């Protein structure tokens, strides 16, 4: 079995790399949004032209980024949504909702202090993890049936 995994959410830490490295021996294909913050923020105005109003600046970028995000989530077998400690990732919550509406298998990854705030997102998930290692262990179990040593 091969699984496609979309890694959504927080872009300020190396959680994606930890999962990809930890799962390197599994038959997985990973995809994610653009994780360069400046590129993600400015893609719309760089490609389509400057905006004086910050709302329209952000609107253009969000729409261009949505092309990649929608395709990645639609093609995924599993969507991992990371909510980090430093910022509120409203886009991650939107991605989780979109994945849930499509019937995707969702794994949420967040620190314990966010549990109450994310209770509705957690209710849509098939697993809630606190560490990238746990996501690797879930994916390993799903693909091989083997529990961690």
Low-confidence stretches: none
The main sheet orders its strands as 2-1-3-4-5
Please give the alpha-carbon distance between the first and last residues. 22 Å
Q: What is the CATH topology descriptor of the domain at 3-33 and 76-144?
A: Rossmann fold
Return the CATH class of the domain at 3-33 and 76-144. Answer: Alpha Beta
Q: How many whole angstroms does the radius of gyration measure?
A: 16 Å
Pfam families: Nuc_deoxyri_tr3 (PF11071)
InterPro entries: YtoQ_family_protein (IPR019884)
Protein name: YtoQ family protein
Written account of the structure:
InterPro entries: YtoQ_family_protein (IPR019884). This is YtoQ family protein. Pfam families: Nuc_deoxyri_tr3. By secondary structure, this protein is an alpha/beta fold. It has a domain at 3-33 and 76-144: Rossmann fold (3-Layer(aba) Sandwich). Helix content is 49%, strand content 16%. The protein has helices at 15-22, 37-48, 54-75, 90-101, 119-124, 132-144, and strands spanning 3-9, 28-31, 78-82, 105-109, 127-129. The two termini are 22 Å apart.
Question: What is this structure's SSE topology?
Answer:
Blueprint: E1 3-9, H1 15-22, E2 28-31, H2 37-48, H3 54-75, E3 78-82, H4 90-101, E4 105-109, H5 119-124, E5 127-129, H6 132-144
Parallel strand pairs: 1-2, 1-3, 3-4, 4-5
Helix pairs in contact: 1-6, 2-3
């Amino acid at each position: 079995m091969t699984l496609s995994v979309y890694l959504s959410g927080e872009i300020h830490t190396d959680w994606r790399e930890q999962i990809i490295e930890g799962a390197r021996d599994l038959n997985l294909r990973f995809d994610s949004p653009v994780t360069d913050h400046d590129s993600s923020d400015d893609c719309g105005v760089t490609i389509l032209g400057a905006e004086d109003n910050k709302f329209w600046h952000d609107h253009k970028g969000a729409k261009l980024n949505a092309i990649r995000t929608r395709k990645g989530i639609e093609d995924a077998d599993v969507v991992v949504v990371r909510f980090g400690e430093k910022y509120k990732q409203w886009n991650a919550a939107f991605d989780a909702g979109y994945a849930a509406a499509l019937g995707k298998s969702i794994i949420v990854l967040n620190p314990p202090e966010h549990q109450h705030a994310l209770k509705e997102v957690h209710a849509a998930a098939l697993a809630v993890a606190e560490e990238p290692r746990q996501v690797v262990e879930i994916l390993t179990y799903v693909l091989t049936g083997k529990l961690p040593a």
